[in-house]
Write a structure and sequence with these properties.
The protein has helices at 17-27, 66-75, 87-99, 208-217, 225-229, 260-266, 295-307; strands at residues 3-11, 14-15, 33-39, 46-48, 53-58, 80-84, 104-114, 117-124, 129-135, 140-143, 157-166, 193-197, 220-223, 250-254, 271-276, 289-292. By secondary structure, it is an alpha/beta fold. The strands form 2 sheets. Strands 1, 2, 3, 4, 5, 6, 7, 8, 9, 10 and 11 form an 11-stranded mixed β-sheet that branches. The chain has a 5-stranded parallel β-sheet with strand order 13-12-14-15-16. A hairpin with a 2-residue loop joins strand 7 and strand 8. Bound molecules: flavin-adenine dinucleotide (FAD). Flavin-adenine dinucleotide binds at residues 198-200, 224-227, 240-243, 255-257, 259, 261-262, 265, 275-278, 281, 294-296.
């Protein structure tokens, strides 16, 4: 990899931990230059990386505006561009790839780079099959959220060589009228631990046992579709075919039957634990660990155990 560009997420002006891991992982290929496209505010002045770094800052919400991102296409010419899969990142990468008539490969689970070509493994058909492909032409890539970036060398902090901000182009057709970040909870697509609950909880008032377990673990909360349709939980927590796709290291599914539409959003999880009082619940077939029992009994016991450690 000669020139590497990275779509990086920021939080309160700092690089997210996942973005730092991605930069460190790609630095281990010793690229001659690194170009960061930072989504969100930039308050950092150096980055741990193998070589000098240029940064361009793209304001929140403008990643879907063709006229605004247009100048990035020429700036990224000759770069291999990487991000970590999320709706926002995949949207931007596919937009850039289509403007530049390049290929985009999303959801990489394994990657090898040998003599100018990439060998890639990824899952397809909602995890029902895996695909191996070799490409010399693709320039835009997103890694699956649970890609293992660990085990790479630590790099010294490099001062940022140049920093600029991409503002909406005059031809821009989009105007951000307001942006209200959801605060106080871990965003689901970024979460490495998720506790999800379904109709088995019976009543929105029973969600305290789910929230207590999530808090004890430092996890995000999720739900099945009927739960958000019933307004028991907000719609941004709904995971599945028609909701958010998650790929945490651990997903604990509580009182969820395991319908195929729900599985389509969670089968990127590394380890799945299912808690259900019906031993025949379909979800058990897709679980790494299963607990047959009542959520009202099991969840408080798990929380208590975690709190005592
Ligand atoms: C086009 C389409 C798209 C859809 N998209 C989605 C989607 O994106 N996401 C999604 O989730 N669904 C989606 N669905 C709905 C999906 O088919 C299921 O209906 C839904 O996932 C079921 O939700 P649930 O498991 O919470 O509820 P239920 O099917 O009612 O299951 C509740 C489970 O809780 C268990 N339970 C009950 N009491 C307890 C207890 N005390 N302790 C422990 N366990 C208990 C039961 O044994 C049962 O397994 C979609 C459906 C369609 C048709």
């Amino acid at each position: 990899m000669k020139k590497v560009a990275i779509i990086a997420q920021t939080k309160e002006g700092q690089l997210s931990d996942a973005s730092k891991q991605l930069i460190s992982y790609l630095s281990s290929f010793k690229p001659e230059s690194i170009f960061i496209v930072a989504l969100g505010e930039v308050k950092f002045s150096s980055i741990a990386a193998s070589s000098s770094v240029d940064v361009v800052h793209l304001s929140d919400g403008l990643w879907c505006d063709t006229a605004t991102v247009q100048p990035l296409v020429s700036a990224l010419d000759g770069y291999s561009v990487f991000g970590i899969k999320s709706i926002q990142v995949d949207n931007l990468l596919s937009l850039l790839a289509s403007i530049s008539s390049n290929e985009f490969v999303s959801g990489i689970q394994q990657l090898q780079y040998v003599s100018g070509s990439y060998s890639i493994n990824k899952s397809i058909f909602s995890g029902k099959a895996s695909l191996s492909l070799k490409t010399q032409t693709a320039s835009y890539f997103s890694f699956n959220r649970n890609f293992d970036f660990s085990g790479n060398a630590e790099f010294a902090e490099q001062p940022i060589k140049s920093s600029s901000t991409l503002t909406p182009g005059s031809a821009s057709k989009s105007t951000i009228k307001s942006l209200k970040p959801i605060t106080g909870s871990i965003p689901l697509p970024d979460a490495s631990l998720v506790v999800g609950a379904g109709r088995g909880l019976k009543d929105p008032g029973n969600w305290t046992i789910v929230e207590d377990l999530a808090k004890a673990l430092g996890a995000a909360t999720a739900c099945s579709k009927p739960v958000s349709d019933l307004n028991w939980r907000p719609h941004h927590e709904h995971v599945g075919q028609t909701g958010v796709k998650i790929s945490p290291n651990l997903y604990i599914a509580c009182g969820i039957s395991g319908a195929i539409q729900h599985l389509a959003g969670v089968n990127g999880s590394r380890v799945v634990v299912v808690i259900n009082n019906d031993p025949e619940a379909p979800f058990f077939k897709h679980a790494d660990y299963g607990i047959v029992g009542d959520v009202n009994d099991i969840l408080p016991r798990l929380t208590k155990k975690l709190q005592s450690h």
